[in-house]
Write a structure and sequence with these properties.
By secondary structure, this protein is an alpha+beta fold. Helix content is 16%, strand content 26%.
């Protein structure tokens, strides 16, 4: 990073941003999340039930 001299700093200009209400726009983000898993161990002796979960996240922004 380089340092600025006083003359370079004084040469900079600034501009005011518009009011916050002016910057407002309708910006919506819809988020859907799903995490599902199913395992069954019915009428089995000395057995294990194994399940893998599937996770889905969908984000849509208008």
């Amino acid at each position: 990073m380089t340092e600025l001299t006083m003359s370079e700093l004084e040469a900079q200009s600034v501009q005011m941003l518009p009011a916050r209400e002016t910057l407002f726009s309708f910006n919506f983000a819809d988020i859907w999340a799903s995490n599902s898993s199913v395992a069954a161990n019915i009428l089995a002796i000395n057995s294990e039930a194994v399940s893998a979960a599937v996770q889905t996240i969908i984000v849509a922004q208008d």
